[in-house]
Design brief:
- The protein is mostly helical.
- The protein has two helices and no strands.
- It has a domain at 15-60.
- The longest helix is centred in the first third of the chain and has 22 residues, at 15-36.
- The N and C termini lie far apart (54 Å).
Length: 80
């Protein structure tokens, strides 16, 4: 697949980052327009927008993997 060049607004990005940034702005804008009554979203569309927005947020704000490949503990073990 050929590399697609995208404008760099916030540092190093690829096409997926640009689409995610676009959706993270557009989806709440659609919710606001729906709440104001300027557009009407079906319940199914509103539900799918919630799921899409949540999955994008979870993907970009997940924990970084450790360097050595071992699972990272959630908390430090207590010291004796």
């Amino acid at each position: 697949m050929k590399n697609i060049k995208v404008p760099r607004f916030f540092g190093r990005q690829n096409f997926n980052d640009t689409v995610a940034l676009f959706l993270l702005v557009v989806i709440p804008a659609m919710w606001i327009l729906d709440a104001r009554g300027w557009v009407t979203l079906n319940r199914e569309v509103a539900g799918s927008l919630i799921v899409t927005w949540t999955i994008i947020i979870q993907y970009y704000f997940r924990r970084a993997p450790p360097e050595n490949g071992a699972p990272k503990p959630l908390a430090e073990p207590p010291k004796p």
